[in-house]
C-alpha cells in the first residue's frame, strides 16, 4: 500500500483503528510555516548532524546519550538513502551506548527497537520498546516503536493505544504521520491527508519536509489525481533531491502516461526495480526486465546481509519471476509473522497465480476488511472473484479499482477494463 515512515520507529506501518481519531484533528496546528524549500538550496542537514555527533564523541567517547543519538542518525540515514548498510552502524552505536549505560538508557533501547522494525524483526522491536517504557513510560518515541511493531504483529488494539499515547505525549510530526497512515488504512483518506498536513506544519528539517510532501503525493496518486501528486512530489524533491519516494512517485506518474524513462537512476529499492521489470516485460523488453530482476534479487540479498528479513519482498520478486509457488511459500511465512493488509493481498495474489482462487479469497477479503480499498486491492479481489465465476462481485471490485484510481497500473488497468468488458451484462453469479 504505502509507505516508509519517518524518524525513529517509523520504518514499519500502522494497521490499527485510531480511538477518537476525529478528535485528533482538533490538535492546534503549529504556527511555524512549512519551510519554503523552493527558495533555497537544499542542505544535507542529516549529514551535518552525523558529523557533529561524531565530533562530540571523539571529544567525549563516554557520552552515552550521544552514542544513542548517533545510532538514531544512522538509522535515519538508512531510510533517506534506502541503504541498509547503515543498519550495522546504527546497531553498533546503540549497543555502545548501552555498554556505557546499561540502566535507565531508554534512548538506546528505542534505537534498537526502531532498527528491529526496519529489519522486520517485529517481536524484537516490541521487546525493545516495552523495555524502554519500563525505564520511561513518557517516552513518545518508544510508544511509536511499539505501535509500529504491534501493528505488524496483528495487535490492532495495542497499536491503537500506543499511537494514541504518543499523540497525547507529543503531538508532533512523528505522531501525526502515524495517525495519518492509520486513518488511510481504514479508508478515511481525507482525514489522513489532513493529519499529514499537520505533520508538514511541524516539519523543519528538509528531509522531513520532503517526507511529508512525498506522502501527500502518494495520497493524491492513490486517488488518481496525477497533477496534484506531481506537484507534491516536485516540492518534496525541491526540499531533498535525493528523496526516493518522490523520485519513485514521479516515475510512476510518467509510466501512467506511457513513459518509462523515470525509472533508471532511482534509488535501489526492490519495489521500484520489480515494478520497472514488469513494465519492461509488458513492453517486450525482456532482457532489460531480467536485468532489473537480477538487481532486485541483489538488493534483497543486501538487505538480508545487513540483518533484515523481508519475505514479502521475496514473494513479490518470485511473482515477477513467474515462480508463483515460491511466492506462496514466502507470503505464507510472512503471514505467520504479521497480518498486515499488504501481506494478505500479496498472499491472495500469489494463490490466485497458482489457480487456487477459493483459497485466495479469504486473504483478499482480509486485505480490505479494515476499510482501506486502494485500487490494487480491489483489482486483485475482483480478479479472484472472476476466477471463481462470481461475476457480480468481480464487476463491483473491478469498477471500484478503476474508479478509485484509473492510473493504478499501466499493466493491470487494461486487464481490468478487458475483464469488465467480458462480463455478462446481468452480472451473473455473485
TrEMBL record:
Name of the featured protein: Tetratricopeptide repeat protein
Cited Pfam families: TPR_19 (PF14559), TPR_8 (PF13181)
Protein keywords: TPR repeat
TPR repeats: 140-173
InterPro entries: TPR-like_helical_dom_sf, TPR_rpt
PANTHER family, alphabetized: CELL DIVISION CYCLE 16,23,27, CELL DIVISION CYCLE PROTEIN 27 HOMOLOG
The keyword Cytoplasm belongs to this UniProt entry's keyword annotation: no
Keyword Signal part of the UniProt annotation: no
Superkingdom of source: Bacteria
Coiled coil: none
